[in-house]
Each structure stands twice: as structure tokens, then as C-alpha cells.
Design a protein that fits this description.
Number of helices: 13
Number of domains: 2
Distance between the termini: 26 Å
Number of strands: 0
Strand content: under 5%
Helix content: 55-70%
Shape: elongated
Length: about 250
């Protein structure tokens, strides 16, 4: 996934007319577009064969132009909403679904009504708020299945930068090691011995930060689904030292 903390700067450059940046950004985000379109379509898609992917890519590009950095909504979450709206519109035109849905006005459509423009802004803000709330609930349910709660994270989140970096390094190692992560998923327990060997972090430190490591590893492994939380924690695409995940809390 494209690094979350680089998105805003990239969008600003694109809006300033940097077409090469746009092309590079679209190429890097094709996997995200693909996964999102497949999830919305609820079937396996293939580039060059299925219209849904072309619709989704055009919608993603449209989202770049429509997005407002100051909105506070993560760009990828906003793009996902736009892709969902455009794909719904596509299916309606293809008569594949009959349910009603609130749709975006056509791309490039200019309304003379300020109230009309504001109504769309309110709609997206409310939709984003609903998605954010549901995402937090879903992540909470996921944590509970591993014996972790949000209250636990408040209590056990490391306050010191060195400790935070060490535990985040352990979380990234766990999330990116297929066999270790599968062991976590199956047993719902941290593979302490193996993680100590792979990271060099002392076992007692891993044990002390067990719940934090589990929570971060789960978020890392599904960061393209939990877009609001990933954005809030400024989750990178790979471990790069201090991720500033506690910066907003003064940690």
C-alpha cells in the first residue's frame, strides 16, 4: 500500500499540475484499486477483461481531483467511497442491481447552487463518520478475539520512543512473516520464542508489550481495510523506525 504519511503531499503535488506524479501514483495504487473493486463486486476480477476495474480506476483518478486535504478524511477511504459510488452507478446502468443508492453527480458536473455543493460535502462527511465508527467497532471485535481491548491498549501503549520503536519493529516482523502470523492467527497467542529469534528483542520485553504487538500486527496485516485507523496512526508501507503513531496523543 502507498505510505499513508506521503499521501497528502502527493495529492497536493498532483493538484498543482504534476502529471508525472499522478501517473506514478495511479500505478502504485493499482493493487488498492484492484482489491477494492473485487471486494465491492464480490467476485474475482481481471484487468483488461472486467469493466469494473476500468470504472474503479477512473473513479480513483476522479477522487484525486475531488479530494480536499483539509477534510480530515483519509484519502484512500475517500477514494474507496467514490469507487463504491461509481461501481454502484455502473451496476445500475447494467441493470445488475435494483437497490437504490445515493450517487455522486457526474464527474465534471458543475452546479450553480452553493447549497447543492454543500449538501454533497455534508453527505460525504456523514458517510465518512459512519465508516470510521464501523471500522473502530470492527477492529474492536477483532482485538477481542485475541483477548485485547482498547482499554488494554491505553494502559500498555509504550510512552518511550525507543520502546515504541522496538515493539513496532516486532509487530512488523510478525505481520510480514507468514508462518509466525499464521501461528498467531491460529493460537491467538504471541509466538515469543520465534519472535525473539527473528527480532533480537528480549523475550521479557516482548511479553511486556504483548497486547500492543498483537494489536499493531493485526492492524498492519489489514491496513488496507482499516484505513481510518491506519491514517490516524500514520502507518507506513514498511517499518522505517519511529512511525509517530502516538504523536497526536503527546506520547
Amino acid at each position: 500500500m502507498f505510505p499513508v504519511q506521503d499521501l497528502e503531499n502527493t495529492i497536493i503535488l498532483i493538484k498543482d499540475g504534476e502529471n508525472l506524479v499522478r501517473e506514478d501514483f495511479l500505478e502504485k495504487c493499482r493493487p488498492f484499486v484492484f482489491k477494492t473493486a473485487c471486494r465491492i463486486s464480490r467476485r474475482a476480477l481481471e484487468w483488461g477483461r472486467d469493466d469494473e476495474l476500468a470504472v474503479a480506476l477512473i473513479a480513483f483518478n476522479e477522487a484525486i481531483d475531488r479530494y480536499r486535504v483539509e477534510s480530515g478524511v483519509p484519502f484512500l477511504a475517500y477514494a474507496r467511497m467514490v469507487m463504491g459510488s461509481r461501481l454502484t452507478d455502473h451496476y445500475r446502468k447494467e441493470s445488475r442491481i435494483a437497490q437504490s443508492s445515493v450517487l455522486l453527480p457526474p464527474n465534471g458536473c458543475v452546479s450553480g447552487s452553493l447549497e447543492y455543493a454543500k449538501s454533497w460535502e455534508v453527505y460525504w462527511e456523514e458517510k465518512a463518520a459512519g465508516e470510521r465508527e464501523e471500522e473502530i467497532k470492527e477492529f474492536g471485535r477483532l482485538l477481542t478475539s485475541y483477548g485485547v481491548t482498547f482499554e488494554d491498549l491505553v494502559k500498555c501503549s509504550p510512552r518511550h520512543r525507543d520502546t515504541r520503536q522496538a515493539l513496532m519493529r516486532a509487530a512488523w516482523s510478525l505481520a510480514e512473516d507468514g508462518s509466525l502470523f499464521e501461528e498467531l492467527r491460529q493460537k491467538k497467542k504471541l509466538p515469543l520464542i520465534e519472535l525473539e529469534k527473528s527480532t533480537g528483542i528480549r523475550r521479557k520485553n516482548l511479553e511486556r508489550g504483548r497486547k500492543y504487538i498483537i494489536a499493531m500486527a493485526l492492524l498492519i496485516s489489514r491496513r488496507e481495510e482499516f484505513l481510518y485507523l491506519s491514517s490516524y496512526l500514520r502507518m507506513p508501507s514498511a517499518f522505517k523506525g519511529d512511525t509517530n503513531e502516538c504523536a497526536r496523543d503527546g506520547c
